[in-house]
Amino acid sequence: MTPLRRLAAILSLDVEGFSGLVEADETAALAAVERAYKRFVRPTVGEFGGDIFKTSGDGVLIEFGSAVNAVQWAARFQRALLADRQEHRPALPVRIGIVIGDVVVTEHDRFGEGVVLATRVQQISPAGGMAISRGVFEYLQGKTDLYFTGIGPCELKGYARHEPIWVWTPKVISASRARRIAVPDPHTQPSVAVMPFDNLSGDPGRDNFIDGMVEEVTASLARVREFLVIARQSAATYRGKSLGAKEIAAELGVRYILQGSVRFSDRRMRVSLNLVDGETALQIWSERIDAEIDDLFHVQDYIAETVSGALHPTIRRAEIERARRRPPDNLVAYDLVMRALPHLWAHRHDENDLAIGLIDEALALEPDNGRAAAIGAWAHAQHIAYNWANDIGEQRTRGRALLDRTPGRIDDDPLALTAVATATMLIEADLERANALLDRALDLDVNHAWAWTRRGFARVYAGQPDDAFACFERSLRLSPLDPFAFNSFIGIGLAHFASDRPEEAARWTRRALAEKPGMTWPHRDLAAFLGACGQEADARLALDRFTASRAGTTIATVRDALRFMNGALLDRYCAGLAAAGLDEREDIGLRAAT
Q1: Range with top average pLDDT, 90-99, 323-332, 438-447
Q2: Contact between residue 222 and residue 234 where contact means Cβ atoms under 8 Å apart
Q3: By the 8 A CB rule, do 271 and 262 touch?
Q4: Within 13 Å of residue 487, how many CA atoms lie on the same side as its CB?
Q5: Cα 341 vs. chain centroid, distance in angstroms?
Q6: 166: exposed, middle or buried (Cβ count in 10 Å: 0-12, 13-18, 19+)
Q7: Which residue from 20, 38, 125, 471 lies 20 to 30 Å from 485 (Cα-Cα)?
Q8: What string of DSSP letters covers 177-229?
Q9: Distance (Å, whole) CA 465 – CA 526
Q10: How many Å separate Cα 234 from the centre of its chain?
Q11: Which of 26-30, 148-152, 400-404 holds the top average pLDDT?
Q12: Distance of alpha carbon 197 from alpha carbon 303, whole angstroms
């Protein structure tokens, strides 16, 4: 009888260094493996169409009908395992290899090339992550938000040829800020960081103007899909520091550093640029550009073209997908918008009011400024979502009025599209529209870290936390030192809560609070998460910190503010707040009597 053969996605899983773990503590090692199998393997693979066909000690072999399902299950498994780690004990170091290959099928087993290759690829996987073959990587394109890094051709035991391998790890989920967050290997993917340009004019009033230019240059470069561009907010943390190009490149995980300075003379400016190889610290290109200040936006386009050509000579000029936007008519309005952004990102009530005031000034000068209207709508949405508003209805009305001023004016602006998507999410609870806007932003700039963060929140609100993790991870990789990164930590916490891991959710929320001193609204999240896991005393403390400046807040007002969450998540969240002591009735006040 001819054996049955088929092409399948094969996943091989084992525990790295299992013999050593057994030698150190046999009982604990065996218990950890059994716990992982019973809780996170056997009950879940069926949801993804997986079929376990072999187990052996610390190893498991699983067949999937879809490579996408295999990869998604692997990511979900590794995250769950990481979140389940026991106190003072590291997570079980599981390696996973996934390939697409030919297998011979029997009733209870699988044999053949696909099975052997999966076990070999598994041996290259980082502990806590996965490794995939070229066939899987190519099949995944456009079907997942997981971020894989190519590590080049690798030697596989028993194979004469070297096979290209890609790896993924969720280690950013457990990394401390003291450690460098993983980013794509600069040797396998060309990458660049645009440093803050030095202001040589001696006039601090020019700083916002220069920062705006750097942001636009960074966004233009990011449209070149052949290399990765670190977000401006991470690069901006090096302003005024005396680190050399090698040190900066190593910390950010990039190959190239673009440095610049700007001098002003009346209405003219001179921009001096240097492109440095971060590995050798050698200058490989320089340019000096003289221009009228009013030609700022033409200069940005020219810089983007010139630098991309120096980075990647094979990229043709036409492959820079440039946003053909009309330069603002009023540079004062542009400056006001740039000044508003740090206040918006501070995530504090008084700072948000300042952002709204600056946006109102910008719109008075330039009523058709779509970016200003978009960011203003975002600011009003924050008033709602963080329970700063005394009148939520009024804030919704003002936000909607600004949203109505954006159509046709922001179609080529990823930042503005992200802002409108956020406001649409929080004000209108329209996740479908928000996702369409985010897709447009990422089509224009696939490296836009904030768009990835907002996409992550949209996934959580829609009840898809597993997909959300991938978005937050990608945002953190694209901008590892971003002062706005705390918002991804908030999102990771909410995704854990949506995955029924409230203790892990609380840990991530505390980390966000440590990253951004002065914020109070995340204490609402913390109270809900701690209340959900029965830590009532700590939950009440968190609730007190949240309500201290929000007299009259009740579960009813929270429900109104957070109506963009799916029903099951919102019910669980409010139940946690109730356990923390927040009252349902608006006429009682802050908390139920104890």
Answers
A1: 90-99
A2: no
A3: yes
A4: 23
A5: 19
A6: buried
A7: 125
A8: TTSPPP---TTTS-EEEEPPPEETTS-GGGHHHHHHHHHHHHHHHHT-TTSEE
A9: 18
A10: 13
A11: 400-404
A12: 13
The CA-to-CA distance between both ends of the chain, in Å, stands at: 75
- Pairing between β-strand 94-105 and β-strand 110-111 as defined by DSSP bridges: antiparallel
Is 580 or 298 the better-scoring residue by pLDDT? 580
Mean pLDDT of 420-442: 94
Q: How confident is the model at residue 120 (pLDDT cuts 50, 70, 90)?
A: very high
Whose tokens are 């036409």? That residue is 318
Report d(CA 271, CA 303) in Å as an integer: 9
pLDDT digits (tens, 9 = 90+) for 240-287: 777 888 888 888 877 788 888 988 887 788 888 888 888 778 877 777
Q: Which two tokens stand for residue 244?
A: 């050399």
Cβ(69)–Cβ(9) below 8 Å: yes
**At which residue do the structure tokens 């290997």 appear?**
185
Single-letter amino acid code for the residue at 591: R
Backbone angles phi, psi at 416, to 5 degrees: -65, -40
Q: Find out whether 374 and 400 touch, Cβ atoms under 8 Å.
A: no
Question: Above 60 in pLDDT, residue 328?
Answer: no
Q: Both tokens of residue 127?
A: 């502990």
Rounded Cα distance between 284 and 190, Å, is 15
Tokens encoding 335:
């400056």
